[in-house]
Specification:
Radius of gyration of chain A: 26 Å
Shape of chain C: elongated
Number of helices of chain A: 5
Structural class of chain C: mainly alpha
CATH superfamily of chain A: NADH:ubiquinone/plastoquinone oxidoreductase, chain 3
Number of helices of chain C: 3
Low-confidence stretches of chain A: none
Shape of chain A: flat
Distance between the termini of chain C: 48 Å
Mean pLDDT of chain A: 85
Number of strands of chain C: 0
Oligomer: heterotrimer
CATH architecture of chain A: Up-down Bundle
Order of helices and strands of chain A: HHHHH
Chains: A mainly alpha (about 120), B mainly alpha (about 500), C mainly alpha (about 100)
Chain lengths: ~120, ~500, ~100
């Protein structure tokens, strides 16, 4: 039963082998001349500005948490959309209730000022 | 089709009303005028939100009462509104109302009055009510989350007080951990029987077409997951810290509500779906109940902080209620098992609220007034409050004439009828041990000198006296209550 | 076809890794990640059971969707809590949050 997977195993082995080989060749034959500039972090060719691990405003975090909440609820919308026609009016009403409940949360977050930057 | 939907919605109408009310209240609270000083912190001192919340709970309770005696099944057997769920729902709604009474002045006094608190309370309550109705393991999981997530926030509502945040963190981490176990267990039962509906599981078990190892593993993990919620040993580690750190009113609600809902789910799932495996499951429940009673009571002896003492006492009482579950699979005993557990849950709720009302009355800002020593002299200075506390302690111990005594009596009777003499003996002996630390509170209150300060807040006092009177009065007239509990049978399919 | 037991063993392994993470890690976020692993193990289980035992019924899939939607809600509350604690104390190491004994 596992024989079906043999081609995939061979493919994985070849891919890993090739990648390893390329890195190894570069390592063996490439010239190495380190300099301060090369040791700098790469920032699209620009000179790096500021430290790499700057602290983010906490606002991003709040928005991200709100995003997770509203984003993950879409997971219920997708299967609903697939069988939407079969469910008919009941499906519409059901989803309407669901969206309304989310809307309550949205209005709450808005009124509490969670979506404002200042 | 439409008829089906209407019946389904009708079955869970009390919960729908409560949840919708909470949604609307959340929005209404946003537009209510806020106190100018408090508005920076989001504080609101208006009594409108708690009043509206109480009104919502009363409406929901009215619907439940109007429907007693009409068992309804909804959503293809996922939800079951039967005598059992009516009983539990009424107990939960009463707990919610008492919690509002306990919270209102307390939250204002500590400067943490927020409208959201009452909304969260209602959401948590709807989760608990759903849990008592769930006849499907998916619904058990979903309603467990619905009751837990608002409770995590409520435990931390006294932010920026560090101990409250710490309580919320610990409660959250262990609660989420526990739901992982529960849902894994449900997954295994689903794999073993091919369904999550209790009705289907029963049918599959009768046909014999299932995988025994998976179903037993699943049952064990379900006990673990729900055991965390009702705080039985060895899944109790979070309880003392969460109970101590959370605001006292929240703790009172948490200890009654979460325990009631958790045991409701345990009773329904095990009595309905797993009676065939009682030979394997009963010894496990036996061990857990014994361990919980012993450890809870002995650990409570060492406590000097009244909130921690009550936390360990709540662990010990989870052990007593667990005793009722032990003979769940024996023929003719499952109804007794359910009835005595329900009765004890009522006794526990009344007693617990009486004790917590006194704790709240004595708590000072900055978590002062919570040591046992702060209760010295209460008997002389505030005789009424001391009497309430004394009644609560006697009821916890199980001394007549209190509800705790009657509750324990029925529990021990059920256990003895099941033939578990050893367990009943452990129960009696640990009750004797518990007398040591409960009576110490009474001794400190009446025998030692001190100048305790207590609040005179009308609602708080009403709740304290009401619960204490209930503890005594209901024990004298316990027959109707026991009749109600014995009528609250689980509807079979 | 891969037998069902492979999936179950994989899920049990994943669950154990998550369990280890919860018990061994100190950072609250790492503990939360451990819990997520446990829930994902459940999802693997559910979908595998659904596919092998009752592919005609949709409930296994739906359950998996519900589990991760609920997990997201839980994480949102947890992260908000962590931020609040971190701002006050500058740490979310579970063993340093010990005003009260565990």
């Amino acid at each position: 039963m596992l024989q079906d997977y043999l081609p995939i195993v061979i493919l994985v082995l070849i891919a890993t082998g090739m990648a390893g080989l390329v890195v190894l060749l570069g390592h063996l034959f490439g010239p190495r001349r380190p300099s301060a500039r090369k040791a700098q972090p790469y920032e699209s060719g620009m000179r790096p500005i500021g430290p790499g691990t700057r602290r983010m405003p906490i606002r991003f975090y709040l928005i991200a948490v709100l995003f997770i909440l509203f984003d993950i609820e879409i997971v219920f919308l997708l299967p609903w959309a697939v069988v939407f026609k079969k469910l008919g009016l009941f499906g519409v009403a059901e989803m309407l209730v669901f969206i309304l409940i989310l809307l309550v949360g949205y209005v709450y977050a808005w009124k509490k000022g969670a979506l404002e930057w200042e | 089709m439409i008829g089906d939907i209407m019946t389904s919605l009708w079955a869970i109408l009390p919960v729908i009303v409560l949840a919708l009310w909470a949604c609307v209240l959340l929005l209404v609270d946003l537009w209510l005028p806020k106190d100018q000083q408090g508005s920076q912190q989001g504080e609101s001192n208006s009594p409108i939100t708690p009043l509206l919340a109480a009104l919502g709970m009363l409406t929901s309770a009215a619907i439940v009462i109007a429907r007693i005696g009409q068992p309804t099944m909804g959503f293809g057997g996922m939800m079951m509104a039967d005598g059992f769920s009516h009983f539990i729902c009424l107990l939960l709604l009463a707990s919610g109302l008492v919690t509002i009474g306990l919270s209102h002045d307390y939250m204002k006094r500590l400067g943490i009055a927020r409208g959201e608190y009452y909304v969260l309370l209602m959401f948590s309550l709807s989760g608990m009510m759903l849990m008592s109705m769930s006849a499907d393991l998916i619904m058990v999981f979903l309603s467990l989350e619905l009751l837990s997530i608002p409770l995590y926030v409520m435990a931390g509502i006294a932010t920026p007080r560090p101990s409250s945040e710490e309580a919320a963190l610990k409660y959250f981490l262990l609660g989420a951990f526990a739901s992982g176990f529960l849902v894994y267990g449900i997954g295994l039962v689903f794999g073993a029987t091919g369904s999550t509906s209790l009705q289907q599981i029963v049918a599959v078990v009768q046909s014999g077409n299932y995988n025994l190892a998976l179903i037993l593993g699943g049952a064990a993990l379900i006990i673990t997951g729900l055991g965390f919620k009702v705080a039985i040993v060895p899944f109790h580690m979070w309880t003392p810290d969460a109970y101590q750190g959370a605001p006292s009113a929240v703790t009172a609600f948490m200890s009654v509500g979460a325990k009631t809902a958790g045991f409701a789910a345990l009773l329904r799932v095990f009595v309905l779906a797993f009676p065939a495996f009682s030979a394997d499951i009963t010894p496990v429940l036996w061990g857990l109940a014994a361990l919980t009673m012993v450890l809870g009571n002995f650990a409570a002896i060492a406590q000097r902080n009244i909130k921690r003492l009550l936390a360990y006492s709540s662990i010990a009482h989870a052990g007593y209620i667990m005793m009722a579950l032990v003979p769940y699979g024996q023929d003719g005993l499952s109804a007794d098992s359910v009835a005595s557990a329900l009765f004890y849950l009522v006794a526990y709720a009344f007693t617990n609220f009486a004790a917590w009302a006194v704790v709240i009355a004595l708590e000072q800002a900055g978590e002062k007034g919570l040591e046992l020593q702060d209760y010295a002299g209460l008997g002389r200075k505030h005789p009424a409050l001391a009497a309430v506390m004394a009644v609560a302690m006697l009821s916890f111990t199980g001394v007549p004439p209190t509800l705790g005594f009657v509750g324990k009596f029925y529990l021990f009777r059920t256990v003895l009828e099941g033939g578990h003499v050893g367990l009943a003996l452990i129960g009696v002996l640990t009750s004797l041990v518990s007398a040591f630390y409960y009576l110490r509170v009474i001794v400190v209150m009446y025998m030692q000198e001190g100048e305790p300060e207590a609040r005179r807040e009308p609602w708080l006092q009403a709740m304290a006296y009401g619960s204490a009177i209930g503890v005594v009065a209901l024990s004298i007239f316990s027959a109707p209550l026991l009749f109600l509990a014995s009528q609250a049978v689980l509807k079979l399919f | 076809m891969i037998p069902l037991s492979f999936y179950l063993i994989f899920a049990a392994g994943l669950f154990s890794v998550g369990l280890f993470g919860v018990l061994a890690r100190k950072n609250a976020i790492a503990i939360l990640m451990g819990i997520e692993l446990m829930l994902n193990a459940v999802n693997v289980n559910l979908v595998a059971f659904w596919r092998y035992r009752m592919p005609e019924m949709i409930s296994g899939q739906v359950f998996a969707v519900i589990v991760f939607a609920v997990a997201a809600a839980e994480v949102a509350v947890g992260l908000a809590l962590f931020i609040s604690i971190y701002r006050r104390r500058g740490t979310i190491a579970a063993d340093q949050i010990d005003l009260m004994k565990w």
